[in-house]
Protein 1
Amino acid sequence: QLAGMRGLMAKPSGEIIETPIRANFREGLTILEYFSSTHGARKGLADTALKTADSGYLTRKLCDIAQSVIIGEHDCGSRRGVIKRAIYKGEQVDVPLSDQIIGRTSVSTIINPVTDEVIVAANEVISEAAALKIEDLGIDSVVVRSPLTSDSSTGCSALDYGLDLSCGRLVEQGMAVGIIAAQSIGEPGTQLTMRTFHTGGIGTRSIVESEVRAGFAGTVELRECNEVPVNDDDGNEVLVALKRNGELAILDDKGRELEKHKVQYASTIRVAPGQEIKKGELLLQWDPHRAPVLAEKSGKVQFVDIVQDKTFREEDAGGGRTARVIIEHKGELHPQVNVVDEAGNILDFHYLPAKARLEVEDGQEVAAGQMLARQPKGSAGSQDIVGGLPRVTEIFEARKPKDPAVMAEISGRIELHSDLRKGKMTIRVISDSGIEKDHHVPRDKALLVHAGDYVTAGDPLTEGPLVLHDILRIKGDESLWTYMLDEVQNVYRAQGVQINDKHIELIISQMLRKVRIENPGDTDLLPHEVVDRFHFRQKNNEIAQMVRVVDAGGTDLPLNALVSRDEVKEANARAEAEGKETAKAKRAKPATGRTLLLGITKASLQSESFLSGASFQETTKVLTEASLKGAVDTLVGLKENVLLGHLIPAGTGFRPYQQIRVRKLAEPPVMDTSEQEMIAEAAQAAEALGADPNESLGMPTVQVRDMIGESANRSSDS
């Protein structure tokens, strides 16, 4: 910018201004150049001021939801975990596996497959050396304990959390990890906001991947690609994939899979099935900027509802050619391109979204795999961190994104149907067992599937961001964790900020604390009541020990009562002794419920403690509800204790520490040999210096007086 040229600038809306600034700051800018240059700078300054506030508010919300999470025990006994893998950016490893697992606790024992030596035992923290060893062995995924799978009542145990990142030792009990997590996520938020300002609105575009090369040498195998031979621009015959969910795998000589790549629709396959390839050879290519629409069968083109100036217009394509571009249209016309056989039967049809360019004429003969039309892919504009902070807030608040993708509710084959209603179309998914599910989609949405494709439940059918609640409903909580974690981390990584996963996991686990009761079973919960996950599990564990009396027989047990198994045994033993009939009982039914995903604001307001909720937002509402319920606050979090002027239950105020009894030992503890050696060495050194050895040894001569009696008296006085 000082010696070359200032380059392309962006408008405040994020679009790039067509005319670049040719001058640099030394030559001086013309009036117009100066104006478009200040455009960006002004925006940077305004953004900084506004977003510092946003970032601060995010930190406050995060602190509020996580403030009660304290390391309450060493091990909560959970045997579940989350899977960690290396993260790829295209072909390159962006975050290696070792970085993801250092300082986490492994769920199972990890063994070197060659020598059978144990690298990490189950429930052992993975050290840096072990992590590098695991990576070198080519192990691609490790299951580690996580706050997400913790069974601890305080929200997290020491093994779920792993190392304390500030000192590299296992986290201590009583550590307020919730606040640490909230601040670790909130603090870079201010950095994210400032980042817009440095570039001064210079237009940037992300580099788009457009090819895949082989990572290993081996034999090619194509799966479900539905590939057809087509001549490329140079006249060479290449294969083109007509399926969206195809795969290209590379196998070694024993038929083991070395790597596999997803084959995108309409990508060119540069190798033949069964071909031997070398490492680094080109496998797949595709056009990163345009999504083509291909003929899936050979035949004759037939246009439907393609009318000039109503559904398409002619545009100058340069070089004296014109291009026909589909325009946004209202009304009854739905432009589509069909491929028909001689008799006029439709073999293949494609809806054309707005902005698609036609590449064929009406009535033209086409071969399978030929391009009928192409549509521009949504260009990644210059990503200001608005993609950043608001995206992070959107995820943590569990909001529905603008223009979300439609997800397949069930697994099955796709059928496309036109809808009777205006501007809609129906994507029908038919499962193997014959269940049908319709998804209604706006007609101009870009589809990710074609008729006849096989989709699994939870696959997106149209373009756009996913709705978190849908992921939870269709695919379950583990898919949701992975998606949320990746989305949040992608925003921070794009800005070059590193945050340890465990912080984000801890916040997500707090968002998923609540369960809505669907069937209360034999518990005393109510249907549709929203309870804490831990409370729900506790109730079910109590019920598991109980039975319901179906027939009292000659015992004194009340009919239909819930009693423990031991009580039934005792009563039956008494009845048998008296020669009466025994009681019959059946197992008590546990409650069933659905995990709820609450945004951080909502979760804070619905916390178990009403003091914490009331001091956050909507005070009157929270207190009114609490008083109507007759709620009791057990003062477990930090906030409630601060409000009442108590010692906070974290750090040295951790409750178990407060109740430790100190005893005087009758025998002094035995020193181990290493300490004795150390003292002897120190004494020799002191003698060598000519000092009195007994003085220079800073020997601990502290007598532990028995202060318990004294302190007890004192506390009774106070």
Protein 2
Amino acid sequence: MVSDRGQRKNCLNSRLGVLALVLLGGVWGCSSPSANPGPRNVTLSQKWALQPGDRLAGYQVQSGLGDITLDIEGKRVFMPFDGQVQPAEGKADLCVILSSPDVPAYLFRLCGLRQPKLGDLTQGDPIGNGDNVSFATLRRQADGTWAMVEPAKEMIEQFLDQP
């Protein structure tokens, strides 16, 4: 025969177990691996007076030396390969940085996209759309900094043509 005390203890234990499962489920449910990544800081080996995001005579600079700007007429830009899209540190509202294990020595900076999709994306996924979008290619230097290099036409075309 089980006493009232034993029944209350079993009931309390089962309620605590259910509560623990609910709490743990909430924690796991909120910690998604596809959460938006934080801003990425890219240290350039070159320095120019004007950078994307700077203001000049009340206007925002959209691109700088080393960028190629195209009027893509509101069309979409696509992932040329699997990789990650992060906001550019200090310019999160204007530029994103794309990185990929497929091309570890390179980063790609895109400025001018409207509501870019951040996080891990696969080849062919849309990154965002825009009007005047600037493309920059950065190559890792031996000292860990990044240098702007001329973007290859074929590379820019891969951003513009969905595979």
